[in-house]
Amino acid sequence: MSAEKRAAAVVALAAGAALVTTPLDSGVGALPLWSAAGPRAAAACALAALAVVAAWRLCRLLFGPLVILRTADDVGYVAESGRSKAQAANEARRRRRTGDLPPVYPNGWYKVLDSCALRRGDVKNVTVLGEQVAVFRGEDGEAHVLDAYCAHLGANLAVGGQVKGNCLECPFHGWQYSGSDGKCVKIPYAEKVPEFAKVRHWHSCEVNKQILVWFHCDGEDPQWAVPEIQQITKGEWVYRGRSEHFINAHIQEIPENAGDFAHLSHLHKPGIISGTDLRYIHNKILKFFQHDWKLQWEPESKPNQHCSTLSLKHCFILFGRHVPQLDLDFVATQMGPGVVFLQCHLGLLGRGAIIQCVTPVEPLLQHVTHTIFYQSNMLPLIPKFILKAETIQFERDVMIWNNKKYVSKPLIVKEDAAIQKHRRWFSQFYSENSPRMQYQRDNLDF
């Protein structure tokens, strides 16, 4: 049970207790209500508890953040004949053809944690790019990322390890590693620390309330920085929620949608009320509400060649008629393979940004988060509705990605030219030594 639910339960019980122990009168020998009223007192207690819980839920709906968490088998698989979703997902993964895949880990910045998930003195065990890393926040407040396994006997530093100052202490023998460079600075039972005693230190940064790491297959230093969104830093835009998905696909499939204009008018035309199951989104009964999309994608030039920009205009079609009052404008800026800023402008309804982060967990398993920040002076229901609508549309793509194969030489028409243009742009994040998929089938089950 979450802290919020526990608090609500305590308040409900307190309110019920206060109600049922109220005296019937103020005279001597007044009886508690429960002893005089019996069933009526119990009913009153139950109603009071329900009222408090309802009030708490309403408060959360109106003012709390929206959090949508999906597991790897929650979305995009069809479970039939009495099978569970996990069984359907595992079967789909085993039988799917992957195709001729590009390298699986492009060079770039990747999110590992939200800043709020790592308090001072905390350490977390995170899987990123096929590696186990220990993410910890030192006593000075700075976040650090190290390889998780101790150089001594391989204990996991993030499982039972302790933060000591700005170092991480191994739970096995107490070796301490500096967060700034990964070098071992203390062995409690040894007179001298060997010069070569160290673990890998990952370049990291903390920006827009997120902790990111830099990956380059050749070990090169960061070649660009993730920019700061000033409105978030200054507190003008505040956190209003996030979604989290695990997608069984190659990382390139996800950003490639920016160059695939045609799929918007088919996959994303049905209204969000049509849901996410692709078998039913084209329901004729729900065709009174549809979306219309106009977009343009272009790569940026030097020195920002690692960026691209997608300009998107969204229109609502209600009973076949355009409703201009509900038009939405979005500008999505992609920085490298793993970070996208989606800025939205809704006129009188305010402005904000959704930060999309795609982080490879394994070669064909991507951890995707959407975090929304919005004007602090706007009703929270507005950004929460935007995030929910974004999630519905995104989960339609998830059903495609989870079941498709990658086609390295697609059969395309001239209207698909932007797809090839996007692939040429994305290829800059691969190097000669970029790791490729090793075909094996040893336990891919969830």
Automatic annotation (TrEMBL):
Protein keywords: 2Fe-2S, Iron, Iron-sulfur, Membrane, Metal-binding, Oxidoreductase, Transmembrane, Transmembrane helix
GO CC terms in record: cytoplasm; membrane
Pfam families reported for this sequence: KshA_C (PF19298), Rieske (PF00355)
Enzyme Commission identifier(s): 1.14.19.21
Rieske domain segment(s): 110-213
Keyword check for Phosphoprotein: no
Alphabetical GO biological process terms: cholesterol metabolic process
GO molecular function: 2 iron, 2 sulfur cluster binding; cholesterol 7-desaturase [NAD(P)H] activity; metal ion binding
InterPro entries tied to this protein: Cholesterol_7-desaturase, KshA-like_C, Rieske_2Fe-2S, Rieske_2Fe-2S_sf
Cross-referenced Gene3D superfamilies: Naphthalene 1,2-dioxygenase Alpha Subunit, Chain A, domain 1, Rieske [2Fe-2S] iron-sulphur domain
Family: Belongs to the cholesterol 7-desaturase family.
PANTHER family named among the record's database cross-references: CHOLESTEROL 7-DESATURASE NVD (PTHR21266:SF32), IRON-SULFUR DOMAIN CONTAINING PROTEIN (PTHR21266)
Protein name: cholesterol 7-desaturase
UniProt source species: Scophthalmus maximus (Turbot)
Gene: zgc:92275
